[in-house]
Specification:
By secondary structure, the chain is of the alpha/beta class. Helices cover 47% and strands 16% of the residues.
């Protein structure tokens, strides 16, 4: 046993023994159910008897990974329908998205069970494995949980990484404990990575090169489906927009970027007064702060949850989004988009959601976590990097004034995305090969 893993195991075991009695009690049945699942107790979800079909446990974290997971599941059901799926998430938003996806499609009902993932503590993980009894454990992206990987291996469960991605920041952190990461990765049967850079990074961390394949990014498959005229009409009605109105959307805004966007908007409306601003912070707990900042700058705005498109309409030209999982739809009404987390060194955010709609996308110089997506659309001539606030203002104003050029740039990004679909099926085939 690796000495660092032994230390990790001892620490997480101690935390479990201390925390379990405390978290077992709750005044809310819903919170108690969540906490029990996080500690590996699924007695109200699964029977003791093992399922008759092959069971696959798919773990995904955020809403984006859940969406990618369901594209892989769809492809998997086409290859082999007689399977049983358990999909887990560590977050409430992720689990709720999984429940929504299941409720929206009859193919998923009674075949997919959504649960909270166990905390990576030895006893919790062991209990979870004993309840779920998976034949295969599929980890979306690259969530490296030592106890889960090791315990799955000991239980004879094949572990695969699907849609594997490793950001520059994560890579640097993992390198500091490379020997431990290599030890954990040795338990994995195959690494089905999203791109070449991800494959290079997992190899550098000690993964067996003979187990690494590049299958593409399954998120591309999901994103293409968001380009729907019906969805666009729904959002236009919600915000009382017309095709003639110029719309500037700033998505996944973080930190000081909010002030930058508000200042740019003041400059925009001096030249194009009718411009609508839709600003979506990455974290919705920032909504009130942005609202107050807008007021100080004499920008009248509304909160998304205060608008329903019928009895309560948009009355101001600026709207702040306070909903989860809606931004990818809202991008459909944009004239030009700025993707945040990129003017400040935070690694950027997903620019492909806007690309799916055929929108020109501006972003700052800090796109380390989405370098592959950046390269994809830049190679097609569909991305616009700006270095600072001044350049962003100039580019946004240019595209708002030159709608035809904006459409041409956006279509290039969209075509690049379309050419890179089909990854979900490749990842599904990785699972299928281990079911025999």
């Amino acid at each position: 046993m690796h000495p660092l893993y032994l230390l990790y195991k001892i620490l997480t075991s101690a935390i479990y023994l201390v925390a379990f009695p405390f978290f077992s009690f709750s005044s809310s049945p819903e919170k108690k159910a969540k906490r029990m699942q996080r500690f590996g107790n699924y007695k109200n979800v699964f029977s003791i008897k093992a399922p008759s079909d092959k069971r696959i446990w798919i773990h995904a974290v955020s809403v984006g990974e859940i969406n990618a997971a369901f594209k892989i599941i769809e492809a998997l059901f086409l290859i082999t329908p007689n399977i049983d799926i358990v999909i887990s998430s560590a977050t409430t938003h992720g689990l709720n998205q999984a429940k929504r996806k299941i409720s929206e499609d009859n193919r998923f009902k009674r075949k997919i069970t959504p649960v909270y993932a166990p905390i990576d503590m030895p006893f919790a993980v062991t209990k979870a494995i004993n309840y779920i009894k998976p034949d295969i454990l599929a980890i979306l992206e690259t969530e490296i949980w030592p106890n889960l990987f090791i315990k799955a291996k000991k239980a004879g469960i094949k572990t695969v990484i699907l849609n594997g991605r490793i950001s520059a920041a994560s890579f640097e952190k993992y390198l500091k404990i490379k020997s431990l990461i290599k030890y954990i990765l040795s338990t994995t049967s195959v690494f089905s990575m999203a791109g070449k850079k991800d494959a290079e990074r997992i190899k550098a961390l000690g993964a067996d090169k003979n187990r690494i394949i590049i299958s593409g990014n399954a998120k591309f498959d999901f994103l293409n489906l968001t380009h729907s005229s019906l969805v666009k009409k729904e959002i236009m009605k919600l915000f009382d927009l017309s095709e003639k109105l110029p719309v500037f959307i700033a998505g996944s805004i973080r930190g000081k970027e909010a002030d930058i966007i508000l200042d740019i908007y003041k400059k925009i409306v001096k030249e194009i007064p009718e411009t609508i601003l839709i600003i979506a912070p990455r974290h919705i707990n920032r909504v009130e702060k942005i609202y107050n900042a807008a007021k100080k700058k004499d920008i009248k705005c509304q909160i998304r949850s205060d608008i329903n498109g019928t009895t309560v309409k948009r009355k101001e030209k600026a709207v702040i989004i306070d909903s989860i999982g809606e931004l990818n739809k809202i991008y459909g009404v944009a004239t030009v988009v700025f993707c945040g987390g990129s003017l400040i060194p935070l690694g950027g955010h997903n620019i492909l959601e806007a690309a799916a709609w055929g929108k020109p996308i501006c972003y700052g110089p800090f796109m380390d976590d989405f370098a592959e997506a950046k390269r994809l659309i830049e190679d097609a001539g569909g991305g616009i990097q700006v270095e600072n606030k001044k350049e962003l203002a100039e580019k946004v104003i240019f595209f708002l004034k030159n709608r035809k050029e904006a459409e041409n740039i956006g279509k290039k990004a969209q075509r690049a995305l379309t050419k890179n679909t089909g990854a979900a099926e490749k990842h599904a085939k990785v699972i299928y090969e281990f079911l025999a």
